[in-house]
Specification:
Structural class: mainly beta
Largest sheet: 7 strands, mixed
Helix content: under 10%
Radius of gyration: 14 Å
Number of helices: 0
Distance between the termini: 40 Å
Length: about 130
Amino acid sequence: QVQLVESGGGLVQTGGSLRVSCAASGRTFSSYTMAWFRQAPGKERRFVAAISGSGSRLRYADSVAGRFTISRDNAKSTVFLQMNNLKPEDTAVYYCAAGVSARTGGILRTEEEYYDYWGQGTQVTVSS
């Protein structure tokens, strides 16, 4: 069982930066693929970024590539999402998710079904 707690959301102006964090419980953090998803008001939850257990492989949604950076600190069981050049369309609740790496076949999945544990979410609002 893994518990995930996000933090770091808030209000930022267009063009600004924000870093959200996700702290995980458990002793096998490095065995999990970690990902960020987001859900904007009235829309479905969508994939944002994923990182392999070792941190050596990354994957991004086209909408955030070049602006967002996912990283992890396995010693602290924490995953981060650095968001730069934020736009109003980035406004959403951001969710951290963990998936057992062995179940994904070594591929960084974008589908929610591959992630077993979810945080409660943190609100990010970008004002225009």
